[in-house]
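Researcher: For the record, we're logging two predictions in this thread. I'll number them. Prediction 1 follows.
Model: Prediction 1, sequence and structure:
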Amino acid sequence: MVILLEMVKVKTASVRVLHWVIFLATVSLVLTGLYIADPFWLSGSGEAYQTFVMAKIRLIHFLSAIALDVAFLVRLYIAFFSLFHTDWTEVLPTPGNLKEAWNSLRFYWTLEGEQKDYRWIDPFDGITFHLLHLVLILQLFTGFALYVSGIELAAGIWGIWAKTLHIATDWTLVVFGGLPGVRLMHHFTLWLVVSGAFLHIYHQIWKTIKLQRADISAIVNGYKLMAVKRGK
Protein backbone atom coordinates (compact mmCIF):
# COMPACT_ATOMS: atom_id res chain seq x y z
CA MET A 1 0.00 0.00 0.00
CA VAL A 2 1.36 3.39 -1.08
CA ILE A 3 0.11 6.72 0.28
CA LEU A 4 0.41 9.67 -2.09
CA LEU A 5 -0.48 13.33 -1.71
CA GLU A 6 -2.89 14.54 -4.37
CA MET A 7 -5.01 17.57 -5.06
CA VAL A 8 -8.57 16.28 -4.67
CA LYS A 9 -11.72 18.12 -5.71
CA VAL A 10 -13.80 18.98 -2.65
CA LYS A 11 -16.07 21.85 -3.72
CA THR A 12 -18.04 22.58 -6.86
CA ALA A 13 -18.08 25.97 -8.58
CA SER A 14 -21.61 26.69 -7.36
CA VAL A 15 -20.64 26.09 -3.71
CA ARG A 16 -17.58 28.33 -4.07
CA VAL A 17 -19.56 31.15 -5.70
CA LEU A 18 -22.24 30.96 -3.00
CA HIS A 19 -19.57 31.03 -0.30
CA TRP A 20 -18.15 34.31 -1.63
CA VAL A 21 -21.60 35.80 -2.16
CA ILE A 22 -22.40 35.05 1.48
CA PHE A 23 -19.03 36.45 2.57
CA LEU A 24 -19.36 39.71 0.60
CA ALA A 25 -23.00 40.15 1.62
CA THR A 26 -22.04 39.65 5.28
CA VAL A 27 -19.24 42.22 5.04
CA SER A 28 -21.63 44.70 3.43
CA LEU A 29 -24.25 44.06 6.12
CA VAL A 30 -21.74 44.57 8.93
CA LEU A 31 -20.39 47.84 7.53
CA THR A 32 -23.77 49.30 6.60
CA GLY A 33 -25.29 48.06 9.85
CA LEU A 34 -22.63 49.83 11.90
CA TYR A 35 -23.33 53.04 9.99
CA ILE A 36 -27.11 52.74 10.45
CA ALA A 37 -26.59 52.23 14.18
CA ASP A 38 -24.26 55.22 14.47
CA PRO A 39 -23.97 57.44 11.36
CA PHE A 40 -20.52 58.68 12.27
CA TRP A 41 -19.14 59.11 8.74
CA LEU A 42 -21.51 61.25 6.67
CA SER A 43 -24.13 63.29 8.45
CA GLY A 44 -26.28 63.90 5.41
CA SER A 45 -26.01 67.69 5.46
CA GLY A 46 -25.09 70.07 2.65
CA GLU A 47 -26.22 69.59 -0.94
CA ALA A 48 -29.55 67.92 -1.65
CA TYR A 49 -28.03 64.67 -2.83
CA GLN A 50 -26.12 64.35 0.46
CA THR A 51 -29.28 64.37 2.55
CA PHE A 52 -30.15 60.87 1.33
CA VAL A 53 -26.98 59.20 2.63
CA MET A 54 -28.85 57.18 5.27
CA ALA A 55 -31.49 56.12 2.74
CA LYS A 56 -28.79 54.85 0.38
CA ILE A 57 -27.01 53.00 3.17
CA ARG A 58 -30.30 51.41 4.24
CA LEU A 59 -30.95 50.34 0.63
CA ILE A 60 -27.52 48.72 0.38
CA HIS A 61 -28.14 47.01 3.73
CA PHE A 62 -31.52 45.72 2.52
CA LEU A 63 -30.17 44.47 -0.83
CA SER A 64 -27.24 42.78 0.91
CA ALA A 65 -29.68 41.03 3.25
CA ILE A 66 -31.70 39.79 0.27
CA ALA A 67 -28.52 38.53 -1.44
CA LEU A 68 -27.48 36.73 1.75
CA ASP A 69 -30.91 35.14 2.23
CA VAL A 70 -31.13 33.94 -1.38
CA ALA A 71 -27.57 32.56 -1.33
CA PHE A 72 -28.30 30.79 1.95
CA LEU A 73 -31.47 29.16 0.59
CA VAL A 74 -29.68 28.01 -2.58
CA ARG A 75 -26.80 26.62 -0.49
CA LEU A 76 -29.32 24.83 1.72
CA TYR A 77 -30.86 23.23 -1.38
CA ILE A 78 -27.43 22.10 -2.60
CA ALA A 79 -26.68 20.62 0.83
CA PHE A 80 -29.62 18.24 0.36
CA PHE A 81 -29.74 17.67 -3.41
CA SER A 82 -26.23 18.18 -4.80
CA LEU A 83 -25.23 15.70 -7.50
CA PHE A 84 -21.59 16.00 -6.42
CA HIS A 85 -21.83 15.67 -2.63
CA THR A 86 -24.66 16.23 -0.15
CA ASP A 87 -23.25 17.59 3.11
CA TRP A 88 -26.26 18.47 5.25
CA THR A 89 -25.51 15.69 7.74
CA GLU A 90 -22.00 17.10 8.31
CA VAL A 91 -23.24 20.32 9.91
CA LEU A 92 -25.78 18.78 12.29
CA PRO A 93 -24.88 18.71 16.02
CA THR A 94 -25.12 14.93 16.26
CA PRO A 95 -23.19 13.13 19.03
CA GLY A 96 -20.68 11.87 16.50
CA ASN A 97 -20.13 15.28 14.90
CA LEU A 98 -19.85 16.97 18.30
CA LYS A 99 -17.22 14.45 19.41
CA GLU A 100 -15.22 14.89 16.22
CA ALA A 101 -15.58 18.68 16.47
CA TRP A 102 -14.21 18.63 20.02
CA ASN A 103 -11.28 16.46 18.93
CA SER A 104 -10.53 18.85 16.08
CA LEU A 105 -10.75 21.92 18.33
CA ARG A 106 -8.51 20.26 20.92
CA PHE A 107 -5.93 19.53 18.24
CA TYR A 108 -6.08 23.06 16.81
CA TRP A 109 -5.49 24.73 20.16
CA THR A 110 -3.20 22.26 21.91
CA LEU A 111 -1.72 20.11 19.10
CA GLU A 112 -2.61 17.09 21.21
CA GLY A 113 -4.30 14.03 19.81
CA GLU A 114 -4.64 13.16 16.13
CA GLN A 115 -6.22 15.33 13.47
CA LYS A 116 -8.08 13.35 10.84
CA ASP A 117 -7.92 14.33 7.19
CA TYR A 118 -11.45 15.34 6.20
CA ARG A 119 -12.23 15.64 2.50
CA TRP A 120 -15.49 17.50 2.92
CA ILE A 121 -16.40 19.57 5.98
CA ASP A 122 -14.23 19.58 9.08
CA PRO A 123 -16.57 18.69 12.02
CA PHE A 124 -15.60 21.82 13.93
CA ASP A 125 -16.31 23.96 10.85
CA GLY A 126 -19.58 22.11 10.41
CA ILE A 127 -20.78 22.88 13.95
CA THR A 128 -19.60 26.49 13.57
CA PHE A 129 -21.55 26.82 10.31
CA HIS A 130 -24.64 25.36 11.96
CA LEU A 131 -24.54 27.86 14.82
CA LEU A 132 -23.75 30.80 12.54
CA HIS A 133 -26.67 30.02 10.28
CA LEU A 134 -29.00 29.85 13.27
CA VAL A 135 -27.73 33.30 14.26
CA LEU A 136 -28.23 34.55 10.70
CA ILE A 137 -31.83 33.30 10.74
CA LEU A 138 -32.43 35.24 13.97
CA GLN A 139 -30.84 38.29 12.34
CA LEU A 140 -33.17 37.86 9.38
CA PHE A 141 -36.30 37.99 11.52
CA THR A 142 -35.12 40.80 13.80
CA GLY A 143 -33.86 42.80 10.81
CA PHE A 144 -37.15 42.56 8.94
CA ALA A 145 -39.01 43.41 12.15
CA LEU A 146 -37.04 46.65 12.35
CA TYR A 147 -37.51 47.27 8.63
CA VAL A 148 -41.28 46.77 8.56
CA SER A 149 -41.79 49.04 11.57
CA GLY A 150 -41.20 51.99 9.25
CA ILE A 151 -43.61 50.86 6.52
CA GLU A 152 -47.18 52.09 6.48
CA LEU A 153 -49.88 49.48 5.98
CA ALA A 154 -50.99 50.66 2.53
CA ALA A 155 -53.19 48.96 -0.04
CA GLY A 156 -52.00 46.93 -3.02
CA ILE A 157 -48.80 44.93 -3.36
CA TRP A 158 -46.91 47.19 -0.95
CA GLY A 159 -49.57 46.56 1.69
CA ILE A 160 -49.39 42.80 1.16
CA TRP A 161 -45.59 42.95 1.55
CA ALA A 162 -45.89 44.87 4.81
CA LYS A 163 -48.61 42.60 6.20
CA THR A 164 -46.58 39.50 5.31
CA LEU A 165 -43.53 40.86 7.13
CA HIS A 166 -45.64 41.75 10.16
CA ILE A 167 -47.07 38.22 10.30
CA ALA A 168 -43.59 36.70 9.97
CA THR A 169 -41.74 38.95 12.42
CA ASP A 170 -44.14 40.39 15.00
CA TRP A 171 -43.31 37.49 17.33
CA THR A 172 -39.87 39.05 17.84
CA LEU A 173 -41.54 42.08 19.48
CA VAL A 174 -43.10 39.78 22.06
CA VAL A 175 -39.98 37.69 22.67
CA PHE A 176 -37.56 40.61 22.96
CA GLY A 177 -39.85 43.18 24.57
CA GLY A 178 -40.61 45.57 21.71
CA LEU A 179 -38.50 47.33 19.08
CA PRO A 180 -35.70 48.41 21.48
CA GLY A 181 -35.15 44.78 22.47
CA VAL A 182 -35.33 43.63 18.84
CA ARG A 183 -32.75 46.26 17.88
CA LEU A 184 -30.47 45.19 20.74
CA MET A 185 -30.73 41.54 19.71
CA HIS A 186 -30.06 42.44 16.07
CA HIS A 187 -26.85 44.22 17.12
CA PHE A 188 -25.82 41.45 19.52
CA THR A 189 -26.15 38.78 16.85
CA LEU A 190 -24.05 40.95 14.51
CA TRP A 191 -21.08 40.59 16.85
CA LEU A 192 -21.69 36.85 17.10
CA VAL A 193 -21.46 36.63 13.30
CA VAL A 194 -18.30 38.76 13.24
CA SER A 195 -16.69 36.64 15.97
CA GLY A 196 -17.63 33.40 14.23
CA ALA A 197 -16.34 34.66 10.89
CA PHE A 198 -12.97 35.66 12.38
CA LEU A 199 -12.72 32.27 14.11
CA HIS A 200 -13.46 30.49 10.84
CA ILE A 201 -10.92 32.56 8.89
CA TYR A 202 -8.27 32.02 11.56
CA HIS A 203 -8.73 28.25 11.48
CA GLN A 204 -8.52 28.09 7.69
CA ILE A 205 -5.26 30.08 7.71
CA TRP A 206 -3.93 27.97 10.60
CA LYS A 207 -4.75 24.69 8.82
CA THR A 208 -3.27 25.92 5.54
CA ILE A 209 0.03 26.91 7.21
CA LYS A 210 0.34 24.23 9.89
CA LEU A 211 -1.12 21.19 8.14
CA GLN A 212 -0.20 22.31 4.58
CA ARG A 213 -3.39 20.90 3.09
CA ALA A 214 -4.28 23.96 0.97
CA ASP A 215 -7.56 24.50 2.83
CA ILE A 216 -7.81 28.11 1.65
CA SER A 217 -7.30 27.15 -2.00
CA ALA A 218 -10.25 24.74 -1.68
CA ILE A 219 -12.69 27.65 -1.55
CA VAL A 220 -10.93 29.33 -4.50
CA ASN A 221 -10.26 26.55 -7.00
CA GLY A 222 -12.19 23.68 -5.38
CA TYR A 223 -9.19 21.44 -4.63
CA LYS A 224 -7.24 20.59 -1.48
CA LEU A 225 -4.22 18.41 -0.75
CA MET A 226 -5.05 14.99 0.68
CA ALA A 227 -3.38 11.66 1.32
CA VAL A 228 -4.68 9.06 -1.12
CA LYS A 229 -4.02 5.33 -0.72
CA ARG A 230 -2.93 3.37 -3.77
CA GLY A 231 -2.48 -0.32 -4.29
CA LYS A 232 0.82 -2.04 -4.94
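Researcher: Logged. Prediction 2.
Model: Prediction 2, sequence and structure:
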Amino acid sequence: MPAQGLFITGTDTGVGKTVVTGAIVAWLRHQGLKTGVMKPLETGVDRECSSAANSDALFLMECGDIQDDLSEVCPIRLKPAASPYQAALIENRTLEPETIVSAYRNLSDKYDWMLVEGIGGVHVPITRDYRVVDLIRDLGLPAVVVTRYHLGTLNHTLMTLDALKQNNISVQGVIFNRGDPGELGEVEQEQPRLIEALSGTEVLGEFPYIDSLDTRSFTPERLQQLESCVRFSRLTPA
Protein backbone atom coordinates (compact mmCIF):
# COMPACT_ATOMS: atom_id res chain seq x y z
CA MET A 1 0.00 0.00 0.00
CA PRO A 2 1.49 3.40 -0.97
CA ALA A 3 2.50 5.71 1.85
CA GLN A 4 0.16 8.51 2.80
CA GLY A 5 1.63 11.95 3.13
CA LEU A 6 1.70 15.69 2.59
CA PHE A 7 3.44 18.11 0.28
CA ILE A 8 4.59 21.21 2.16
CA THR A 9 4.64 24.20 -0.17
CA GLY A 10 4.74 27.94 0.42
CA THR A 11 3.81 31.32 -0.94
CA ASP A 12 7.43 32.13 -1.76
CA THR A 13 11.00 31.22 -0.94
CA GLY A 14 12.12 31.90 2.61
CA VAL A 15 8.67 31.67 4.23
CA GLY A 16 9.74 28.88 6.60
CA LYS A 17 8.72 25.67 4.80
CA THR A 18 11.78 23.81 6.05
CA VAL A 19 11.31 24.77 9.69
CA VAL A 20 7.63 23.83 9.63
CA THR A 21 8.34 20.56 7.79
CA GLY A 22 11.09 19.69 10.27
CA ALA A 23 8.70 20.20 13.17
CA ILE A 24 5.98 18.12 11.51
CA VAL A 25 8.30 15.18 10.80
CA ALA A 26 9.58 15.30 14.39
CA TRP A 27 5.98 15.36 15.67
CA LEU A 28 4.85 12.49 13.42
CA ARG A 29 7.74 10.30 14.45
CA HIS A 30 7.09 11.21 18.09
CA GLN A 31 3.53 9.93 17.53
CA GLY A 32 4.99 6.60 16.42
CA LEU A 33 4.31 7.00 12.68
CA LYS A 34 6.96 5.50 10.42
CA THR A 35 7.69 8.73 8.55
CA GLY A 36 10.08 9.58 5.75
CA VAL A 37 11.03 12.91 4.22
CA MET A 38 11.90 14.11 0.76
CA LYS A 39 13.26 17.37 -0.60
CA PRO A 40 13.08 16.46 -4.31
CA LEU A 41 15.09 19.45 -5.52
CA GLU A 42 17.55 21.70 -3.75
CA THR A 43 19.48 24.62 -5.18
CA GLY A 44 22.15 26.85 -3.72
CA VAL A 45 24.03 23.90 -2.20
CA ASP A 46 27.57 22.70 -2.80
CA ARG A 47 27.41 18.93 -3.14
CA GLU A 48 30.92 18.66 -1.73
CA CYS A 49 30.30 20.83 1.32
CA SER A 50 26.88 20.81 2.91
CA SER A 51 25.37 20.43 6.36
CA ALA A 52 22.04 20.89 8.09
CA ALA A 53 22.90 24.57 8.38
CA ASN A 54 22.81 25.12 4.60
CA SER A 55 20.92 22.11 3.25
CA ASP A 56 17.16 21.77 3.71
CA ALA A 57 17.36 18.05 2.98
CA LEU A 58 19.95 17.41 5.68
CA PHE A 59 18.02 19.61 8.13
CA LEU A 60 14.89 17.51 7.64
CA MET A 61 16.80 14.26 7.93
CA GLU A 62 18.34 15.33 11.23
CA CYS A 63 15.01 16.57 12.60
CA GLY A 64 13.51 13.14 12.00
CA ASP A 65 16.65 11.12 12.78
CA ILE A 66 16.33 9.64 9.28
CA GLN A 67 19.10 7.39 8.02
CA ASP A 68 18.24 7.20 4.31
CA ASP A 69 20.92 8.09 1.81
CA LEU A 70 20.92 11.78 0.90
CA SER A 71 20.58 10.86 -2.78
CA GLU A 72 17.24 9.20 -1.98
CA VAL A 73 15.91 12.12 0.03
CA CYS A 74 17.17 14.77 -2.39
CA PRO A 75 17.80 13.29 -5.85
CA ILE A 76 18.49 16.67 -7.52
CA ARG A 77 20.98 19.10 -5.96
CA LEU A 78 22.23 22.14 -7.85
CA LYS A 79 24.82 24.69 -6.81
CA PRO A 80 23.43 27.94 -8.29
CA ALA A 81 20.99 29.68 -5.95
CA ALA A 82 18.14 29.95 -8.45
CA SER A 83 15.01 28.13 -9.52
CA PRO A 84 15.72 24.52 -10.52
CA TYR A 85 15.14 25.34 -14.19
CA GLN A 86 17.51 28.31 -14.18
CA ALA A 87 20.10 26.50 -12.06
CA ALA A 88 20.02 23.55 -14.46
CA LEU A 89 20.53 25.89 -17.42
CA ILE A 90 23.58 27.38 -15.68
CA GLU A 91 25.01 23.91 -15.01
CA ASN A 92 24.07 22.70 -18.50
CA ARG A 93 21.94 19.91 -17.05
CA THR A 94 18.57 18.53 -18.11
CA LEU A 95 16.09 17.78 -15.34
CA GLU A 96 13.62 14.93 -15.79
CA PRO A 97 10.45 15.16 -13.65
CA GLU A 98 9.88 11.43 -14.13
CA THR A 99 13.12 10.81 -12.22
CA ILE A 100 11.76 12.70 -9.22
CA VAL A 101 8.43 10.88 -9.26
CA SER A 102 10.18 7.51 -9.53
CA ALA A 103 12.54 8.39 -6.66
CA TYR A 104 9.54 9.35 -4.52
CA ARG A 105 7.78 6.07 -5.24
CA ASN A 106 10.88 4.07 -4.28
CA LEU A 107 11.48 6.02 -1.08
CA SER A 108 7.84 6.01 0.00
CA ASP A 109 7.75 2.21 -0.17
CA LYS A 110 9.80 2.21 3.05
CA TYR A 111 7.33 4.30 5.02
CA ASP A 112 3.74 4.60 6.16
CA TRP A 113 3.82 8.39 5.91
CA MET A 114 5.80 10.82 3.77
CA LEU A 115 6.49 14.54 4.01
CA VAL A 116 7.71 16.21 0.83
CA GLU A 117 9.00 19.78 0.97
CA GLY A 118 8.84 21.85 -2.18
CA ILE A 119 11.16 24.55 -3.43
CA GLY A 120 9.95 28.14 -3.47
CA GLY A 121 6.33 28.66 -4.48
CA VAL A 122 3.99 26.55 -6.57
CA HIS A 123 4.85 28.23 -9.88
CA VAL A 124 8.63 27.80 -9.54
CA PRO A 125 9.80 26.15 -12.80
CA ILE A 126 11.51 22.77 -12.66
CA THR A 127 11.76 22.58 -16.44
CA ARG A 128 10.49 24.93 -19.12
CA ASP A 129 7.08 23.23 -19.10
CA TYR A 130 6.89 21.72 -15.62
CA ARG A 131 6.42 23.56 -12.33
CA VAL A 132 6.21 22.67 -8.65
CA VAL A 133 2.41 22.54 -8.84
CA ASP A 134 2.75 19.86 -11.54
CA LEU A 135 4.99 17.83 -9.26
CA ILE A 136 2.50 18.04 -6.38
CA ARG A 137 -0.23 16.82 -8.71
CA ASP A 138 1.90 13.96 -10.07
CA LEU A 139 2.85 12.77 -6.58
CA GLY A 140 -0.83 12.69 -5.67
CA LEU A 141 -0.36 14.33 -2.28
CA PRO A 142 -2.53 16.91 -0.51
CA ALA A 143 -0.78 20.22 0.16
CA VAL A 144 -0.10 22.33 3.21
CA VAL A 145 0.68 25.98 2.47
CA VAL A 146 3.17 27.88 4.64
CA THR A 147 2.81 31.65 4.58
CA ARG A 148 4.04 34.59 6.64
CA TYR A 149 2.74 37.81 8.12
CA HIS A 150 3.52 40.76 5.88
CA LEU A 151 1.88 43.20 3.54
CA GLY A 152 0.99 41.26 0.39
CA THR A 153 0.40 37.93 2.08
CA LEU A 154 -3.30 37.93 1.18
CA ASN A 155 -2.42 38.17 -2.52
CA HIS A 156 0.37 35.59 -2.39
CA THR A 157 -1.57 33.11 -0.28
CA LEU A 158 -4.79 33.37 -2.29
CA MET A 159 -2.91 32.97 -5.59
CA THR A 160 -1.16 29.88 -4.20
CA LEU A 161 -4.43 28.35 -3.04
CA ASP A 162 -6.08 29.14 -6.38
CA ALA A 163 -3.26 27.45 -8.30
CA LEU A 164 -3.53 24.33 -6.18
CA LYS A 165 -7.30 24.12 -6.50
CA GLN A 166 -7.19 24.74 -10.26
CA ASN A 167 -4.94 21.66 -10.49
CA ASN A 168 -7.37 19.59 -8.39
CA ILE A 169 -4.93 19.38 -5.49
CA SER A 170 -6.50 19.00 -2.08
CA VAL A 171 -5.32 21.59 0.44
CA GLN A 172 -5.05 20.39 4.03
CA GLY A 173 -4.64 23.89 5.42
CA VAL A 174 -2.51 27.01 5.81
CA ILE A 175 0.14 27.58 8.48
CA PHE A 176 1.38 31.08 9.30
CA ASN A 177 5.05 31.17 10.22
CA ARG A 178 6.49 33.79 12.56
CA GLY A 179 9.86 34.59 11.03
CA ASP A 180 10.88 37.13 13.67
CA PRO A 181 10.08 37.85 17.32
CA GLY A 182 8.51 41.27 16.73
CA GLU A 183 4.96 42.13 17.73
CA LEU A 184 2.23 41.78 15.15
CA GLY A 185 0.36 44.89 14.08
CA GLU A 186 -3.40 45.13 13.71
CA VAL A 187 -3.23 44.44 9.96
CA GLU A 188 -1.10 41.32 10.45
CA GLN A 189 -3.29 39.95 13.23
CA GLU A 190 -6.29 40.00 10.90
CA GLN A 191 -4.59 38.14 8.04
CA PRO A 192 -5.34 34.53 9.16
CA ARG A 193 -9.06 35.29 9.59
CA LEU A 194 -9.19 36.98 6.19
CA ILE A 195 -7.43 34.06 4.47
CA GLU A 196 -10.05 31.67 5.85
CA ALA A 197 -12.93 33.95 4.90
CA LEU A 198 -11.69 34.67 1.38
CA SER A 199 -10.51 31.18 0.46
CA GLY A 200 -12.61 28.79 2.51
CA THR A 201 -9.36 27.07 3.53
CA GLU A 202 -8.63 26.30 7.16
CA VAL A 203 -5.76 28.12 8.84
CA LEU A 204 -4.17 25.45 11.04
CA GLY A 205 -2.41 27.89 13.31
CA GLU A 206 0.70 29.96 13.83
CA PHE A 207 4.17 28.46 13.98
CA PRO A 208 5.98 30.56 16.59
CA TYR A 209 9.37 32.20 16.29
CA ILE A 210 12.06 29.94 17.80
CA ASP A 211 15.30 31.56 18.86
CA SER A 212 18.57 29.75 18.01
CA LEU A 213 16.70 27.15 15.97
CA ASP A 214 18.52 23.98 14.96
CA THR A 215 17.70 20.32 14.35
CA ARG A 216 17.74 19.63 18.11
CA SER A 217 15.05 22.22 18.80
CA PHE A 218 12.10 19.84 18.42
CA THR A 219 12.28 18.08 21.77
CA PRO A 220 9.16 16.32 23.16
CA GLU A 221 8.58 19.36 25.37
CA ARG A 222 8.86 21.78 22.44
CA LEU A 223 6.56 19.62 20.32
CA GLN A 224 3.96 19.70 23.07
CA GLN A 225 4.18 23.50 23.08
CA LEU A 226 3.85 23.61 19.29
CA GLU A 227 0.69 21.49 19.43
CA SER A 228 -0.98 24.38 21.26
CA CYS A 229 -0.07 26.72 18.37
CA VAL A 230 -0.61 24.53 15.30
CA ARG A 231 -3.26 21.83 14.94
CA PHE A 232 -0.87 19.09 13.91
CA SER A 233 -3.60 16.52 14.50
CA ARG A 234 -5.45 17.94 11.46
CA LEU A 235 -2.57 16.81 9.24
CA THR A 236 -3.20 13.09 9.67
CA PRO A 237 -6.27 10.90 9.26
CA ALA A 238 -8.46 10.50 12.34
